[in-house]
Amino acid sequence: MKQFISRLFIPQESNNYRALLLHQSVLGLFIAIYLLNQSLIRSLTLIKPGILGYSSEITADKVINLTNAERQKLGLAPLKLNASLSESARLKAEDMFKNNYWAHTSPAGVTPWDFFKAVGYHYSVAGENLAKDFYDTESMVRAWMKSPTHRANIVNTKYQEIGIGVVNGVLGGIKTTLVVQHFGAPLNGSVAGSGPIVGAEVPPVPIVNIETNPVPQFSPLLISKIIGITMFLLIISVLLVDGYVTLRHQTRRLTGSSAGHVGFLAIILLLLLFTRQGSIF
Amino acid sequence: MLFKEISQKPLEYIALLIILLTGLFCFFIYTFDPHSQRRVVYATAAAYFFWSLYHHYRRGDLEVSIIIEYLLFALFGIILITSTLL
């Protein structure tokens, strides 16, 4: 056993002076294991929808407060919460879960403006921001602010009111939290629904759960990410050990450049470790 | 040991560093455009592969086994990023 482990990590005569973990067949095996893991996760989400998913701490109050904080940084007036806009946002999120899509316009051609009309909100201007798979509100609002089109909605001077829909459900077989932000300015100042309340003092808007089960703690992407990071760390470590032993023993052999491989793998590792969570639309 | 490798052909490794950093930079530039990010990943992996061909050709040890080794690394990187992040 000890000898086998040594062959896995340390170049020696028995492994043709190349750590076994860096042999082409083992690299191919790593790829196969990773692809198998991806297939299993996809199969699991199809067979048992909702068994995997994101756990989210997002609340509508925080979304409104952070949105208004961004506006106030630019000296803009805060948006007022409108119950009709919150209702249209909630309907939009529920429609995405019900019809299994992630877009501003549904596959049946239903646009965001149809939801505004459905709740009787007559607007002069209106807008919509979408987000999913975020764990916390701060990251989500930060992602919107980094996107020019979403930011344009948040800091639009024409908007006066806002509604937030935070709905938990199953999308594409995976449990997630969808957040819909609806913006608007009422036509001629007449707004259907209850009167507006200033963002900083809004009463809590309930989070709707389409599924009654609590959202689980592990996401499929997180599982894939952890497996990928583990594999890459292992390969980088073995490349470093392999390079060190080869240099010490002055071994000459026909292999790729360890420095080149480590550089490429390090970049991939950086992307895996530091890329954003969630997605916006 | 990596430094010894790099010191033998510093310009080639600087070229590789530029390729990889450009890929990293472009990936973050297109943060909200998964289609462009996917293209950036493909292009970076392809550039890494072609760099390896040039590097080993110059070293005089360009063999099929080395080409396959780089292909596997490039493929692994593409699969991991596209299936996990995009």
* pLDDT averaged residue by residue of chain A: 82
Percent of residues of chain A in helical segments?
A: 40-55%
Largest sheet of chain A: 7 strands, mixed
Shape of chain A: elongated
Rg on CA atoms of chain A, Å: 25 Å
Cα gyration radius of chain B (Å): 14 Å
Approximately how much beta-strand content do the residues of chain A carry?
A: 5-15%
Largest sheet of chain B: none
User: Multimeric state of these chains?
Assistant: heterodimer
Number of strands of chain B: 0
Number of discrete helical segments of chain B: 4
Q: Can you tell me the residue ranges of chain B where pLDDT is under 50 for at least 5 consecutive residues?
A: none
Number of strands of chain A: 7
Q: Choose one word for the global shape of chain B.
A: globular
SSE arrangement of chain B, N to C = HHHH
**Biggest interchain interface, per-side counts:** A-B, 43 and 41 residues
Percent range of helical residues of chain B: over 70%
